[in-house]
Design brief:
Distance between the termini: 32 Å
Structural class: alpha+beta
CATH topology: Nucleoside Triphosphate Pyrophosphohydrolase
CATH superfamily: Nucleoside Triphosphate Pyrophosphohydrolase
Largest sheet: 8 strands, mixed
Number of helices: 2
CATH architecture: Alpha-Beta Complex
Radius of gyration: 13 Å
Shape: globular
Helix content: 10-25%
Strand content: 35-45%
CATH class: Alpha Beta
Order of helices and strands: EEEEHEEEEH
Oligomer: single chain
Length: 129
Amino acid sequence: MIDVCCAIIVREDGCVLVAQRAADQLLPLKIEFPGGKIEAGERAEDCLVREIKEELNLDICIHKRMEAHRHRYPDFSIHLIPFVCTITGGEIQMNVHQNCNWLKPEELPEQDWAEADVPLMMNYLKSLK
């Protein structure tokens, strides 16, 4: 089981930042909430701040932890821990992803998501009601 944290980054207008995985990565071209693997002894929150800085050159503020989800892919299993965040600094620079977009909440279900991210996206949408 791989422990991973991810950021549901929300802008003032309610749009959410989604990232597209690169073609040469696992789950090529799938949409995901950006984040990464938690290192040994690292808190999930610290991992997320580090990963978002490394992947997107953004500084974030974590507002709340959402319900985690476990997912089994054919070759590995993932424990995905989401956090709702806002940007506090930096300019988007894609160091890992092929693309990223700001989407309105109602546009989120239409994307080609990595399977593990789907329940997180649905839980986030439920939290807005």
